[in-house]
Amino acid sequence: MRISRELLDALVAHALEDPGNEVCGVVATDAEEAEPDGGQPAAGDQRTRAVRVLRATNVHASPLRFEIDPRELLGLYLGIEADGHALGAIYHSHVRSRPYPSQTDINFAANWPGVEWIIVGLAAGKDPEVRSYLIDAGEVREVALEVA
Fold it and tell me: What CA–CA distance (Å, rounded) separates 116 from 124?
């Protein structure tokens, strides 16, 4: 996924606003039509470009897990589609660990095939570390988060 510095900063700022609890939200995307060199992406390798970061409420307000109320998530999803975009990523923070999907994240991802999982790691008060993953059938694969 390509994401502007402004959108990535907004996502990280959300995580830093409540460093004691996991925060969450979604990223709306558009498919990119061509590669930077003018060529078309290979089949199955379509690139996306982030167009909006939308905050959500963690119903648990917990440092250990996040969940977006299904009604809120549906509203976000429908709004994204109404604007002609796609749900490209679900993001959340890890306040006590590095940005790698937990088993809970992996289980939840089963309901969202093809959606990236962006995790902001805030462990040990270090600078935030941001990573993105695709999770398919329980298999985790890190994918590039290109800041452009």
Answer: 25
Q: 27 lies in a domain? A: yes
Give the structural domain span for 12. Answer: 2-34+46-147
SS3 50: strand
Q: Which residues does 3 contact at the CB level (< 8 Å), separation at least 6? A: 11, 27, 49, 50, 145, 146, 147, 148
Rounded Cα–Cα distance for residues 57 and 43 (Å): 35
Which CATH number do you get for residue 18? 3.40.140.10
pTM recorded for the entire structure: 0.90
Instruction: Report the amino acid identity of residue 23.
Output: V
* CB-count exposure of residue 137 (10 Å: 0-12, 13-18, 19+): exposed
Q: How confident is the model over 27-54, as a mean pLDDT?
A: 69
Which DSSP string corresponds to 101-125? Answer: --HHHHHHHTTSTT-EEEEEE-GGG
Is 40 within a domain?
Answer: no
Looking at the predicted structure, is the pLDDT value of residue 46 above 90?
no
- Cα angle vertex 23, ends 22, 26, to 5°? 135
Per-residue confidence band for 39, with pLDDT thresholds at 50, 70 and 90 = very low
Query: Is the dihedral angle over the CA atoms 68, 74, 75, 79 positive or is it negative?
Result: positive
